[in-house]
Design goal:
Layout (H helix, E strand, L loop, with lengths): L1 E12 L5 H6 L1 E11 L2 H6 L8 H12 L6 H15 L3 E11 L9 E9 L8
Antiparallel strand pairs: 1-2, 2-3, 3-4
């Protein structure tokens, strides 16, 4: 087992509970941590044996481009996409930060972190 991480991804997107946030947009940060078996890729040196970082980035980008009211909902969508695209991922964790959230005071960023364990596949009788 091993971990693949993409940290410090940055996007300008149009998420937020308030309509104004969805109109003016904001800067967001995303960190991904995925647990998967890396032995085959380590032995073969073949990209097909692992989780492709470029594909991961494109999945996150696609979700970041679709507005959401809550960071929690956005994180849920990102994990859904990753787990569907890469069934070899056993666990996933995503952290999403909104920079300078509109709280009425100083706050550098608000962050939510969601974790998910892959569903065990059962065989039907």
């Amino acid at each position: 087992m091993g971990q693949i991480a993409l940290e410090g991804l940055e996007f300008f997107a149009f998420h937020g509970y308030y309509d104004e946030e969805q109109k003016i947009g904001n800067k967001y940060g995303v960190d991904l941590h995925l647990k998967t078996d890396l032995h085959a890729a380590g032995a073969s040196d073949k990209l097909a044996e692992t989780v492709n970082y470029e594909v991961l980035y494109r999945l996150v980008l696609a979700e970041m481009q679709l507005p959401a009211r809550l960071l929690e909902h956005l994180g849920h969508r990102i994990l859904d996409r990753i787990m569907n695209e890469f069934p070899q991922v056993k666990r996933g964790r995503v952290s999403i930060s909104k920079f300078n959230p509109p709280l009425g005071g100083i706050c550098h960023r608000a962050r939510v972190t969601l974790s998910r364990k892959a569903q065990a596949h059962t065989k039907e009788a």
